[in-house]
Amino acid sequence: MRCASPADVPEPRIEIGGEVSRSSLYALVRDNGIGFDMRYHDRIFEIFQRLHRQEEYPGTGIGLALVRKATCLRMQGRVWGRQRAWRWCDVLSELPR
User: Fold this and answer.
1) Which pTM was predicted?
2) What are the tens digits of pLDDT across the range 5-40?
3) What are 49-60's pLDDT values in tens digits?
4) Of 23, 29, 91, 92, which one is least surrounded by beta carbons within 10 A?
């Protein structure tokens, strides 16, 4: 997850959680990093599709694309993101048991 610069967020945080149901395993990664606009939800999981300029936040734009590839293509699961309150965002995944 990409964390914002210290000037933007006084204390960067990452939270990780999970849950098990009869048919699925769920994973959650939540952070208070740079966030994303929900209008571009699908784009954040495409390789090299950045929502911010390279000058603003360094990175390659492949992190969430790799998560999607592993979760959806390799493990027949699904992955999605959601923007929360100010800069908090969640990346969730569901895998079959």
Assistant:
1) 0.71
2) 556 556 888 899 999 999 999 999 988 877 777 777
3) 666 666 666 666
4) 23
Residue 15 main-chain phi, psi, to 5 deg: -120, 140
Question: Residue 97 and residue 25: Cα distance in Å, rounded?
Answer: 6
Please name every residue paired with 31 in a beta bridge, in sequence order, or none if there are none: 14, 89
Helix (H) or strand (E) holding 90: strand 89-96
For residues 96 and 44, the model is more confident at 96
- Inter-residue long-range contacts of 18-27, CB under 8 Å, 24+ positions, other chains counted: 20/97, 21/97, 22/97, 23/96, 23/97, 24/94, 24/95, 24/96, 24/97, 25/94, 25/95, 25/96, 25/97, 26/92, 26/93, 26/94, 26/95, 27/92, 27/93, 27/95
Phi, psi dihedrals of residue 39, rounded to the nearest 5°? -65, -25
State the Cα–Cα distance between residues 59 and 71, nearest whole angstrom.
21
